[in-house]
Amino acid sequence: MKAFVVKEYAHPSKIPVTLDHPEPTVGPDTVLIDVYSAGLNFFDILQTQGKYQTKPPFPFVLGAEFAGTVARDSPIPPGCPLRPGQRVFGSAQGTYGERVAAHVSMIQPLPDTLSFDQGAGLFVTWPTSYEALVGRAQLKAGEWLLVTAAAGGVGIAAVQIAKALGAKVIAACSPSKMEVPLKYGGADHVVDYTKEGWQKEVLKITGGRGVDVVYDPVGRVKDSLKCIVWGGRVLVVGFAGGEIEKLPLNLVLLKHISVIGIFWGSYHQKNPSRAVEVWKELLELLSSGRVIPVVYTETYTLDTLVKGLDDLEKRKTWGKAIVRIREQPGEKAKL
Ligand SMILES: NC(=O)c1ccc[n+]([C@@H]2O[C@H](COP(=O)([O-])OP(=O)(O)OC[C@H]3O[C@@H](n4cnc5c(N)ncnc54)[C@H](OP(=O)(O)O)[C@@H]3O)[C@@H](O)[C@H]2O)c1
Predict the structure, then answer these.
(1) Quick one: 142 and 244 in the same domain?
(2) Which of 1, 97, 135, 189 has its CA 20 to 30 A from that of 201?
(3) Residue 106: which domain range?
């Protein structure tokens, strides 16, 4: 099969597409997926170079998120509700290939309302943002939320989910992306957080009060505390800025705030019953059309995947960047 195969550690730009990689085989509790679209992630670039925590043995196919169909010739484990041909999305190692073997616990049914492109970037970003806002920060209708990197994968999902919850959203992002959270996320306001003193704009928008909740996937918590309300909540989601942020605890005390972590990847092991609830609620929300996954306008193929990863590395993309693995006849978003 055609796939992006890593045979030794190298930057993605040095890796050619392989045309005749063997198809994966299934193990216990796994099914074969015909991959249609796959989501690009920054950690792919780290993984090809051996700089990511997950180091599969060589040769391995790159890619971690997919949308596709359960292969017609896939074995189905006993008791598994999946059926051959079913549209699904999920996560597995090796999604930049025409077929991938995925564990049944890492597969969800793809709502009819969503295209493969929209489904390919859902599996990690959307439950992370949903559980962060709903389960962890308990965001309420009418509250002010500040989202940093609001045009990025988890950020734009957070903006949409918060709007669906009835919150008022201030999106912060770099200047070239400011239209994205407004146009695709429904944010109420957007600020350029690369500008000195951007927090004053947030204070002005909130009538001098500050936001109730900060959602931060970048490492801009300390900056954001200049525009949080006394007693506010801060969600620590990630460190896209490249450094693990350190926070002086006197600020936590003086601002009387709660700093809340979210690690969605641990839920299946640490809190599986909540993971089931989150997926149920999220799939209902996604099916309702009140939220719509945002796909970056340039779609890549296996032949242009290196350009996609380069665009991602250079911080050009927004929403979820997608690589089309197969032709998708008649397949388009129904929203
Ligand atoms: N806690 C969890 O369970 C969980 C789950 C998923 C992801 N995450 C983490 O959340 C973070 C964001 O993930 P994502 O999927 O939203 O990523 P993404 O789509 O690549 O977006 C990241 C955004 O961060 C901003 N950014 C600021 N400084 C940056 C820098 N130095 N390099 C690159 N981007 C920079 C960029 O927006 P601007 O150009 O507008 O600044 C970029 O669009 C990652 O650190 C990821 O590991 C955590």
Answers:
(1) yes
(2) 135
(3) 5-122+293-324
Mean predicted lDDT score pLDDT of the chain: 96
Residue 77 pLDDT level (bands cut at 50, 70, 90): very high
User: Which atom of ligand 1 lies nearest, measured to the CA of 125?
Assistant: 6
Reported as a single tens digit per residue, the pLDDT across 47-70 is 999 999 899 999 999 999 999 999
Q: Whose CA is nearest to atom 32 of ligand 1?
A: 241
Q: Is the CB of 154 under 6 A from ligand 1?
A: yes
Half-sphere exposure of 219 (CA within 13 A, CB side): 8
Q: Is 173 helix (H, G, I), strand (E, B) or coil?
A: strand
Say if residue 81 is exposed, middle or buried (CB neighbours under 10 Å; 0-12, 13-18, 19+): exposed
* Domain shared by 244 and 131, yes or no: yes
The CATH number linked to 113 is 3.90.180.10
Q: What is the CA radius of gyration of the chain?
A: 20
Q: Which residue's alpha carbon is at the smallest distance from atom 8 of ligand 1?
A: 238
- One domain, residues 157 and 95: no
Closest residue by CA, ligand 1 atom 27: 241
